[in-house]
# Entry
Amino acid sequence: MGKYGSFKKRCLLDALKYKNKNSRVLNVKIAVKFQVKYFKLWARIRGVPLANIKEEQNANLSLAQNNALKFYIDYLISIDHQANKKHIVFAENAILKAAKVIQKTSLNNQWVRC
# Structure
């Protein structure tokens, strides 16, 4: 990111510091004063993460979770149901959500046959 991006980041950080010191000032006035977008300031005040940060996008299954996914695939095969990519992705995401690892993941490609 060039100078313009770093300048906008600095303005946003200054606006957040100002908001922490002066909590009664309206967000609109702070956005105008520090020349930042209102909704971006509003999101940062409420703790919404940056859009370009994607933490733990490729989470791996533990050994027990991997075995559970294998068992599910074997179950689908035993009832003569096709185990397609959509069902496997849904099952893996359900396992990870149940373990409270992440909300969205990408699938380990060793289980997918297109």
